[in-house]
Amino acid sequence: MKMILPGLAVAGVVAALAATTGAAQAQNVRVRGAIESVDGNTVMVKSRDGASLKLVLKDNANVRGVVKASLADVKAATNVAITSRPRADGTLEAVELRIFPPGPFNSFHGDWDLTPGSFMTNGSAQTSVAAVDGQVLTVEYKIPPDKTDVKKILVTPKTIIATTVAGNKDDLKPGLRVFVAGAPKLPDGSLDVANIQVEKEIPPPQ
Predict the structure, then answer these.
(1) CA distance 55 to 43
(2) What would the mean pLDDT of 175-182 be, rounded to a whole number?
(3) In sequence order, what are the residues at sequence separation of 6 or more whose Cβ sits closer than 8 angstroms to the Cβ of residue 95?
(4) How many CB atoms lie under 10 A from the CB of residue 43?
(5) SS in 3 state form for the chain?
(6) C-alpha of 59 from chain center
(7) The dihedral of CA 128, 131, 113, 97: what is its sign?
(8) pLDDT number for residue 96
(9) What is the pLDDT of residue 21?
(10) CA 73 – CA 121 distance, rounded (Å)
(11) What pLDDT, on the 0 to 100 scale, is given for residue 18?
(12) Which of the listed residues 21, 35, 167, 173 has the most CB atoms within 10 Å of its CB?
């Protein structure tokens, strides 16, 4: 049975999970890993590939804690960022669904680096249709300069559904996992970080 998702408001979070242009991606470094140590604005992170990264947080860095959410929090026109991967039949299955608040949002669909062959879809939730093993969410996204398209993505009981809450640098502790969508590399090889997500109730996707 088809269900139009009700409501327009959603308690969400401004997070730095946004796509950048190819040129910006070439200059920025995406970080997934666990904190090794914290010394003032310097955070050492062991990345998922084993590299040791030095993150230098800006004085006004935006720290967000990753917390659990549910599909019930996704209302009509909710901004979502969905990491998905294709099933054998081509159906996109959501690995993680991240909820954002209404407002300016970088809408797109493209390749992602969570796992080989994964995609990221940033867009506006339109409808949810019951499926045998979950809900098929229709997400509308923009194609520059002025077109839109939709993706149908299966959300299953295994899908991680999350949002983030405001935090501060005191939330950055050794052992916790973090995600940085993109940080410029400084001349000494360290990373200049303005936005960082940190494990609170659940870790960011690694």
Answers:
(1) 5
(2) 96
(3) 83, 84, 85, 114, 115, 118, 159, 160, 205
(4) 28
(5) CEEECCCCCCCCCCCCCCCCCHHHHHHEEEEEEEEEEEECCEEEEEECCCCEEEEEEEEEEEEEEEEECCHHHCCCCCEEEEEEEECCCCCEEEEEEEEECCCCCCCEEEECCCCCCCEEEEEEEEEEEEECCEEEEEEEEEECCCEEEEEEEEECCCCEEEEEEECCHHHCCCCCEEEEEEEEECCCCCEEEEEEEEECCCCCCC
(6) 23
(7) positive
(8) 96
(9) 37
(10) 18
(11) 42
(12) 35
- Cβ-based neighbours of 1, under 8 Å, separated by 6 or more: 129, 130
Q: Are strands 177-184 and 191-199 parallel, antiparallel or unpaired?
A: antiparallel
Place of tokens 């010394």: 39
Encoded tokens for 145: 């300069």
Tokens 């959501």 sit on residue: 94
118-142 in b/e burial notation, b at 16+ Cβ within 10 A? bbbbbbbbbbbeeeeebbbbbbbbb
CA distance 74 to 56: 34
* pTM, rounded to two decimals: 0.82
Q: What are phi and psi of 76, to 5 degrees?
A: -60, 135
Look-up of token digits 């949810």: 128
Dist. CA 57–CA 194, nearest whole Å: 6
| Cα end-to-end distance, the chain, whole Å | 34
Give mean pLDDT, residues 27-45. Answer: 96
